[in-house]
Prior knowledge:
Largest sheet: 2 strands, antiparallel
Structural class: alpha+beta
Shape: globular
Number of helices: 2
Radius of gyration: 16 Å
Helix content: 40-55%
Strand order of the largest sheet: 1-2
Oligomer: single chain
Amino acid sequence: xxxxxxxxxxxxxxxxxxxxxxxxxDICVDELDEILKGLEGEQKFKNKPEFYQSRSIKAxxxxxxxxxx
Length: 69
């Protein structure tokens, strides 16, 4: 079974950094939203390459299925 993790760091000023590990695509954003909901303040997001990797693989699979029909 594949393992998924969320790493959360809080510095001495109360700034929070959260990173997902093992997740690809939109699932990582959904999980972080659920964990961090209700927190106030400025939010910045930086998507890792894995976020985009899953989308491109899905698109290739869908394209191949459509072309065979």
